[in-house]
Design brief:
Length: about 300
Amino acid sequence: MPQAQLLKPQELARLSNLQLLARRVVEGFITGLHQSPYHGFSVEFAEHRPYLPGDSIRNIDWKVYARTDRFVIKRFEEETNLKGYILLDSSASMAFGSGSLSKLQYGIQLTAALSHLMIEQRDAVGLAIFDQKIKRLLPPRSVRSYLSQIFSELVNLEPSGKTGIAETLHRVAERMQRRGLVILISDLLDEPEEIISGLRHFRYDGHEVIVLQVIDPLERSFAFPRDARFRDLETDERIISQPWHLKDAYQKEMKGFLDELKSGCRENRVDYALFDTSQPFDFALMEYLNKRKRLY
């Protein structure tokens, strides 16, 4: 996928609308993050903002109130910029695609769009590409030139290796010294209990966590029209079967798998969304951000 195709001109144009939604999402997260006693000695005053219901009165600048009769909040440097990681699964199972895009290509476009949104609003974004282990780790930065480095990692990315989501989650959690945002983009074809354990590690440390599960429509429907030969993309094991005989049982198992992931995320206050590769990624992302915006 050439770099120029990561985000097409019409998609970049639509990202201007996503930008407004993303800003609301991030600002809502930051407001909630700082309602608790969080500031340490390292924070520095950055600017004022209007007082909002729910803000702690201890952050009101009373000197400004005395001069202007307006309530404003002291905003600190740690409040003005969010640090986040996007964790992109590039294991072999992400190679599957029944349409124009594989799951990995879809995930790459989501990663590119989210990186663009975060850096455009001056938030710092880092990137972790992984399979069983972390293949590439870029620390969070907020300068626009950093997008080129992120995109260069995405351009020639090929799926390979077995899936090991939990280990990556734990390793990244151990590196994050400051509370921030973590976005996991994966098909999540791994053990749900282990995935939830890794996500719980982030939540225990106070991070905001978003899980974007990328699934091909055939992986949900199993609607293959004839006898099919299936190959495990991670082990190369092959079997021949008659899908229509297995369809009902498969769909039941898949629904149970998805429900287990969704309920595990909900119980641990992890935001979960399912992305179908048959839906254009930018419209899917806008729908998700619209839904998330209503939470704040």
